[in-house]
TrEMBL record:
Its main location: other. It comes from Providencia burhodogranariea DSM 19968. It is found in: Cell envelope. One of its GO terms (cellular component) is cell envelope. This is TMAO reductase system periplasmic protein TorT. SUPFAM superfamilies: Periplasmic binding protein-like I. The keyword Lipid biosynthesis does not apply. The keyword Protease does not apply. Pfam families: Peripla_BP_1 (PF00532). Belongs to the bacterial solute-binding protein 2 family. Residues 48-328 form the Periplasmic binding protein/LacI sugar binding domain. Keywords: Signal.
């Protein structure tokens, strides 16, 4: 039954290539099971003040989430304040930022946590509702979560490699991001589940912050230890590092990305990356704003919702996928948006 559910999710994710915002969202019951849920509209009855916390904006994943939030803030006529922690495992910084949100007068917190747990969150936020964005902390204070299970973002690339390899052996370097943060362990678990019983083999796991220099150093060290690596599979930052490093190698690396970035998109189009998933980050940013508004207005909300997962290759990637996944070229982070009603 477990295998059937996983196969069904993979099949559905492929259908997600044709998904638009007029179609169903996914309502996740756990990392394997989901229901389809039609996206419902709402209107803001007040100029709500929403304060969003991100791990970092140096990763274009969160830049695209930021773009979606800014778009939704404009659409709904609410105020948005954005604070970034500068990296993962920055609990103390994000705790101080919650205090800054409260001092600003926030009505709700949109928490993209830099850690897997957030101790004493209830005491910190008081009566402010918390909407979890992307990274799960499993805290009872959270009213609702917007995000695909990170397990799935590792499972889909693993399953793709099993099919792509056609039964031939593949040696994979796994680079899922920072240790115990940002869904790294969940992506690793999903990847392992997908390749179980196949000829796809993980020969090393390199964990580190989603920083290009950090990922490049990890990759170089791994290649010294394992010069026979066939595939690098990991975060978009790891994929970007692998594209750069691959130019210096006699044996070209095959690259798979667990999520989409602007550079990964270009790599797909040029045939330098064989596959990437997208959890449609722009759309997720918009959803987070919509969910926060509904919570503040006492409207019913489902927990654990997301757009469909897109499975992208050179053959099926096109500009239609950009609108709901990536911020436009030249977009710069928006740290504060003030509703036109207040200007």
């Amino acid at each position: 039954m477990r295998i059937f559910i996983l196969f069904f999710i993979t099949f559905y994710s492929m259908l997600g290539l044709a998904a638009s915002k007029n179609n169903a969202l996914l309502h996740w019951r756990d990392e394997l099971r989901f229901d389809s849920q039609k996206q419902s509209s709402t209107e803001a009855t007040n100029v709500w003040k929403l304060c969003a916390l991100y791990p970092s904006l140096k990763d274009s994943y969160w830049l695209s989430v930021n773009y979606g939030m800014q778009k939704a803030a404009h659409t709904y006529g609410i105020d948005l304040k954005v604070l970034e922690a500068g990296g993962y495992n920055q609990l103390a910084i994000q705790q101080k930022q919650i205090t800054q949100c409260k001092q600003w007068g926030a009505d709700a917190i949109l928490l993209g946590s830099s850690t897997t747990t957030f101790p004493n969150l209830t005491q910190q936020v008081g009566d402010l509702p918390v909407i979890e964005v992307i990274n799960a902390i499993h805290d009872k204070t959270v009213k609702t979560r917007v995000g695909v299970p990170w397990f799935q973002m590792g499972y889909q690339p693993g399953r793709y490699l099993v099919q792509w390899s056609n039964g031939n052996p593949l040696k994979v370097l796994l680079m899922p991001g920072p240790d115990n943060a940002g869904g790294s362990r969940e992506m690793e678990a999903g990847f392992r589940e997908a390749i179980a019983g196949s000829q796809v083999q993980i020969i090393d796991i390199a964990l580190g912050d989603n920083d290009l220099e950090v990922q490049r150093n990890l990759l170089q060290e791994a290649l010294e230890d394992h010069p026979d690596i066939d595939v690098v599979a990991g975060t978009a930052i790891a994929a970007e590092a692998a594209m750069g490093e691959g130019r210096n190698l006699k044996k070209p690396l095959k690259i798979v990305s667990f999520y989409l970035s602007h550079q990964v998109y270009r790599g797909l189009k040029r045939g330098r990356i064989i596959m990437a998933t997208s959890d449609q980050m722009v759309w997720q940013g918009e959803l987070a704003i919509e969910q926060a508004i509904k919570v503040l207005q006492g409207q019913p909300v489902l927990d654990n919702i997301s757009p469909p997962i897109l499975v992208l290759t050179e053959e099926n990637t096109n500009k239609e996928h950009l609108h709901s996944s990536l911020s436009p070229g030249g977009f710069r982070p928006v740290y504060q948006y003030t509703s036109a009603a207040k200007k």
